[in-house]
Write a structure and sequence with these properties.
Elements: E1 17-26, E2 29-39, E3 44-48, H1 55-62, E4 70-75, E5 78-79, H2 85-90, E6 93-96, H3 108-116, H4 127-133, H5 149-161, E7 167-171, H6 179-196, E8 199-203, H7 207-213, E9 217-221, E10 224-229, H8 231-236, H9 238-249
Parallel strand pairs: 3-8, 3-9, 6-7, 7-8
Antiparallel strand pairs: 1-2, 1-4, 4-5, 9-10
Helix pairs in contact: 3-4, 3-5, 4-5
The structure holds adenosine-5'-triphosphate.
């Protein structure tokens, strides 16, 4: 099942990100098994699926952390397979990990300044604008180590944005957050997309959070994308209900 949004090309003709028949095997385990996926400039898509279905491996392939066994990843019209990790990051694909990695002994604003040193010449919001966007202006002179878990996640999001990414890969951005922090994170992600036109791929297990993000979803199982569409479409898919949503939501 493919939803219409997947086929749209960018103005230059080539899709912004195009994953073509991507395979990654670890010995006998095919962690990513002929995955096809297209993402337009500024678009967002959630990747969901049970533990071990290949989501993290897919991110590791896109960022260049792992080489694929076969298939291609085309970014802004060119294959990035074999391109070094740092070059892929410099070209604008930036990953935010589940556990926030801020510098605890530095102030909030110095964390952003440190990250902004690697913006690769692209224009970007100022540290003050980024702090405002993530709601941390009032904390700017606090040591990052004193922030709550949710605030650390938002600070790291601002740090990622300060590098002027074109595509952000968010690995479980709601993990460990309170309900209020999750609601704020959804608002924040929507605002970031409105303000910056950055594209996003989001791995997430929390289905209420996924629903609130209100974007197309790809469902992975055993390394394959088995369903794609909006939240209601995916929810109704019998295979998804049985193998994933049913198990999560009861
Ligand atoms: N470096 C590795 N070496 C061997 N097997 C691996 C390696 N990385 C992942 N795998 C295997 O590949 C499969 C997919 O793992 P992956 O971590 O990508 O899944 P996931 O969907 O991200 O899981 P989770 O939701 O638990 O993070 C699993 O069977 C895993 O054991």
């Amino acid at each position: 099942m493919q939803d219409a949004a997947e086929g749209n090309a960018t103005s230059g003709g080539a899709p912004f990100l195009e994953i073509i028949s991507l395979v990654k095997s670890f010995g006998g385990v095919r962690a990513v098994d002929h995955v096809d996926l297209v993402l337009d400039t500024g678009a967002m898509r959630c990747i969901i699926g049970p533990n071990g279905c290949g989501k993290t491996t897919l991110f590791n392939l896109i960022t260049g952390y792992l080489p694929p066994s076969s298939g291609d990843i085309r970014y802004r019209g060119q294959s990035i397979v074999g391109r070094p990790l740092h070059k892929i990051a410099a070209d604008g694909i930036v990953r935010k990990f589940q556990v926030p990695s801020v510098f605890p002994e530095m102030t909030v604003e110095d964390n952003i300044r440190a990250a902004a040193g690697v913006r690769h010449g692209r224009s970007v919001a100022s540290p003050a604008e980024l702090l405002d966007m993530v709601g941390l202006t009032k904390n700017r002179r606090h040591m990052a180590g004193t922030l709550s878990h949710g605030e650390k996640q938002w600070l790291e999001l601002a740090m990622v944005l300060s590098t002027a990414p074109r595509l952000i890969l968010l690995d479980e951005p709601a993990a460990g957050m309170t309900r209020t922090e999750k609601t704020e994170t959804v608002r924040l992600i929507h605002e970031i997309r409105r303000e910056t036109n950055v594209a996003a791929l989001v791995i997430e297990h929390d289905m209420a959070f996924v629903a609130a993000l209100d974007c197309p979803i790809s469902v992975m199982m055993l390394g394959r994308i088995v369903a794609s569409g909006d939240y209601d479409t995916v929810r109704r898919d019998p295979l998804v209900r049985e193998a994933y949503l049913g198990a999560v939501n009861g």
